[in-house]
Amino acid sequence: MDSVNRIRDDVAGLWSLVKGLKVTGTCFARDQVTVHYPRAQVDNLRTFRGPIELVESPDDPRRPRCIACMTCAGVCPHGCITVVRKKPAKMEKGTEKGGGSDKGEAKKKARKGPATFTYDYTRCCLCGFCVENCPVRSIRFSSRGYLAGIDKGAFVFDLLEKFGEEERSQKPEPGVTSPATAG
Ligand code: SF4
Ligand code: SF4
User: Fold this and answer.
1) Beta bridge partner(s), residue 119
2) Which residues constitute the domain of residue 158?
3) 64 and 129: one domain?
4) pTM as predicted
5) Using alpha carbons only, what angle is made at residue 144 by residues 58 and 43, rounded to the nearest 5 degrees?
6) Which of 76, 111, 119, 139 to mutate to test ligand 2, by most ligand atoms within 8 A of the CB atom?
7) Inside any domain, residue 183
8) 54: CA distance to ligand 2 center in Å?
9) Which of 8, 140, 176, 182 could cross-link 85 (Cys pair, CB 3.0–4.6 Å)?
């Protein structure tokens, strides 16, 4: 009777092995879904939820859409975002009443915006509160999926960097800093 039980166990074990090999074989024969990074990169990051970034203004892509309202910094549960509002540029004499492109350019420069916009990705849980609560839809998730660095400082981003020196050289309005760093 013992030998019958042993044979039954052996057959069950063998059958289990066959089933496991079937799964392995099926996966082995499928198209590869991973790539050998860094020799290759995936091309389906469009829907990837990467670190946040600022959205360009629709009427001037050299500037962010952000109006420095500080809402994102206030709702962020981890204090990842620090915004300092820029000191609004004064409209030069003659441009207030005059027409044409001078007036439009002066208006763009005079509007509210950030002097600095810092984002600490090391603390971000990608919850999306900042994206959902921005009143002017100035934040979105980027598709940056290949970030690397040798220390945490490499993941603290200046989100105005992509807008160039002009936006990064704005003077801050005294005392107007987001809740994350105020006090
Ligand atoms: S996604 Fe969430 S945790 Fe990350 S910065 Fe936005 S609000 Fe903060
Ligand atoms: S909520 Fe939007 S507009 Fe307000 S500071 Fe943040 S990014 Fe700028």
Assistant:
1) 81, 157
2) 52-177
3) yes
4) 0.74
5) 100
6) 139
7) no
8) 9
9) 176
